[in-house]
Amino acid sequence: MTKMNYYQAASVSQAIDYLKQYRGQAMLLAGGTDIMVLMNQYEIPENTVFIDIEDIPELKQINFQNDGIHIGSMVTDSELMESELIKEKAAAKVTLSADKKIITSITIAAGACAPTIVRLKQLEQALTGQPADTNTVSRNVHLALKDISPITDMIGTKWYRKEMIRVFAERAVNGAIANAAKKEG
């Protein structure tokens, strides 16, 4: 069995110090799923140093700054979906007609479905000018899949990512419509 060296970093600066100290030998550990897969597929060198960054507080933060929303690398999917800041500021922005019945403009962004965050332009176009209700969103949400290019990797399959984008897009748009109706009311 391979002997492993393990350090738990308490801050980003400490993790960077460990990376510098063990240059060429270090692997970041952030949950461990990828490392376990690698250990099962390949032999990990004896001198490998694992640096655990999972519990670094600054990597678990979601905050809004002048240039946009900053999401720490250790924020989980469920924390992201439950974040009030994300619900308020991210994913979808909707403007409604004066009577709050029609979507006059909409912007929808999605992550983890392409190399970078993408706008779901086909869904945006389909919803603009349509009734601001859950049925309209439900009928059109499949268009979210036309603007994404997910891959299968160790984290999830292409099929799973497509399903999640569809679900998250529907939730985000319905939430943005509800928020716009409250703000404009």
What topology does this entry show?
Blueprint: E1 5-8, H1 12-21, E2 26-29, H2 33-41, E3 49-52, E4 62-65, E5 68-71, H3 77-82, H4 84-89, E6 92-96, E7 103-110, E8 118-119, H5 121-127, H6 134-140, H7 158-183
Parallel strand pairs: 1-3, 2-3
Antiparallel strand pairs: 4-5, 6-7, 7-8
Characterize the structure shown.
This protein is an alpha/beta fold and 185 residues long. It has helices at 12-21, 33-41, 77-82, 84-89, 121-127, 134-140, 158-183, and strands spanning 5-8, 26-29, 49-52, 62-65, 68-71, 92-96, 103-110, 118-119. Helix content is 38%, strand content 19%. The strands form 3 sheets. A 3-stranded parallel β-sheet has the order 1-3-2, with helices on one face. A 3-stranded antiparallel β-sheet has the order 6-7-8.
Short account of what is shown:
This protein has 185 residues and is an alpha/beta fold. The chain is built from seven helices and eight strands.
